[in-house]
Amino acid sequence: MFRWGARTWPARWWARQSLRTRLTALATALFSVAVLTGAILVLVLQRYALLKVLDSSAQKTASDVAKQIRAHPSLSTVVPTTGGVTEVQVVDSHDVVIAASPGSDRLTPLLSGKDLQSARDGERFDITSPTTGGGLRVVAQRAGSRTVLVVTDLSRVDDSLRVLSRAALIGGPLAVLLMGLATYFVVGLTLRPVAALRHGAADITAAGLADQRLPVPGARDEIHRLAVTLNAMLDRIDTATARQRTFVGDAAHELRSPLASLRVQVEVTQRIGPEGDWPTFLDDLLKDIERLDRLVEDLLALARLDEAAGSPRHEDVRLDKLVVSVAGGYGRARVPVRVGQLSETTLLGDTDALRRVVVNLIDNAVRYAVTEVRIEVRDVAGQFVELTVTDDGPGIPADERERVFDRFYRLEISRSRESGGTGLGLPIVRDLVRAHRGDVHLTARSDGRQGLRAVVTLPVNPGH
Fold first, then answer.
1. What share of the chain has pLDDT > 70, as a percent?
2. How would you classify the pairing of strands 384-391 and 135-143?
3. Sign of CA dihedral 67, 70, 71, 72
4. Does residue 157 contact residue 50 with C-beta atoms inside 8 Å?
5. Number of Cβ within a 10 Å radius of residue 243
6. Closest Cα to residue 116, out of 88, 84, 149?
7. pTM, whole model, 2 decimals?
8. How would you label 339-377 residue by residue, b for 16+ Cβ within 10 Å and e otherwise?
9. Hey, what's the torsion of the CAs at 281, 282, 283, 285, to 10 degrees?
10. Is residue 99 part of a domain?
11. E strand segments, 372-431
12. CATH number of the CATH domain containing 288
């Protein structure tokens, strides 16, 4: 059984054709329908216009003959007064011919019975000539109790329509053929940039993204914008890939260091035997394990950030209360963590993410502070919240304050194992703050003393 659907041969054939062929076929088919519809409309309108001219001429003759009959009731021969009229008959109320033009039938009316009555009421009739077999058109007009019947020949109308039909039969297919060829050529030129994009994509697939981009056509059209958008996407993919490779390499390097230290300590202790200094050995092991734990925790945090793609939850967060809660957990830190000015502020954000921001900034400050760390929260015109964490440590040179936000970047002072830094704390802070549509930067202390000041600016409503 034949079924029209996706698996029938026309659908399969159509699916195998190129876009160029399908566009050409569709455009040609639509143009063919337009040509056919136009030809039919022209023929109909032409026939209507010609018939209107004939009817006007016949009506003029009928009016003139009616005047003659009224002026001369006994008149038996009438003469057409306009061209195109072939016959004129005058019939009385009993449907008897009482006058006619020369050469017309004086015995039998052209119309009879119901047709004649309809003609008297204004209807026009197309009849066939009993002598020539050609088409005739009959128009009637009352003249008192008499009726004037005027006959015009339709041969000129038929001849005109025949000429137009032949012209349409010849010109229509020719126009469709030219349209198809022109469409095929134009579509080919239009799709040439698409072919270039396909070849460029194939080259990128074979050679990789490095220094490879799609060709951008010169025309400022949709394909140009598509190429620009795709190149921008490739740039982001290339950047993300390079960042991932760097991240994996740096992570492997950072993990290798504490693992190597653990291995060395175990091997040394194994050689020394039971007489070794086990408490010191265990303390060193715990330090390396803690360092590994911090590093793995930071790596997991970065992985979650990349997976979330910078879209934190939005809930009401009292940042001042959050700061007090976090600062209370540093009672045994190497330097005291003091809470300074606290403005009562509520913002939309992710509580866990903002807690991680505060913890990382305090950890970083405690690691390098000499006497204390101070944290403050300040409202800025009801639209922003400013969180500052200040320490009195050695500070960071101005030319390196931006670089410390790069993953795994650490200053020379923080490269020792004792410092405990992983090089991921500040990058995590930056990513979390940016996810909240905020900003973070490092500056010198405002009072001119030694130290560093971390400033986080967050919008109250990050969605606006």
1. 84
2. unpaired
3. positive
4. yes
5. 12
6. 149
7. 0.50
8. beebeebebbbbeebbbbbbbbbbbbbbbbbeebbbbbb
9. 90
10. yes
11. 373-380, 384-391
12. 1.10.287.130
Query: Which residues contact residue 11 at a Cβ distance below 8 angstroms, ignoring those fewer than 6 apart?
Result: 4, 5
Q: How does residue 1 score in pLDDT terms, banded at 50, 70 and 90? A: very low
Q: What tokens does 310 get?
A: 């910078």
> Total structural domains in the chain?
3
Higher pLDDT, 235 or 38: 38
Final residue belonging to a domain, choices 152, 173, 207: 207
Q: What is the mean pLDDT of the chain?
A: 81
Distance separating alpha carbons of residues 127 and 154, to the nearest angstrom: 10
Question: What confidence tens digit (pLDDT) does each residue in 309-362 have?
Answer: 545 567 888 999 999 999 988 888 889 999 988 888 888 888 888 988 998 899
Q: Read off the tokens for 9.
A: 């041969």
Q: How many residues does the chain have?
A: 464
pLDDT, greater one: 217 or 437: 437
Domain that holds residue 417: 310-459
Beta carbons within 8 Å of 400's beta carbon, 6+ residues apart: 411
Q: Using pLDDT thresholds of 50, 70 and 90, give the confidence band for residue 244.
A: confident
386 DSSP β-pair partners = 378, 457
By C-alpha distance, which of 336, 56, 19, 72 is closest to 183? 19
Using the predicted structure, report yes or no on whether residue 464 has a pLDDT greater than 70: no
Question: What angle do helix axes 278-308 and 222-272 make, rounded to 10 degrees?
Answer: 170
418 touches 405 (CB < 8 A):
no
Q: In this structure, which amino acid lies at residue 113?
A: G
Does 127 fall in a domain? yes
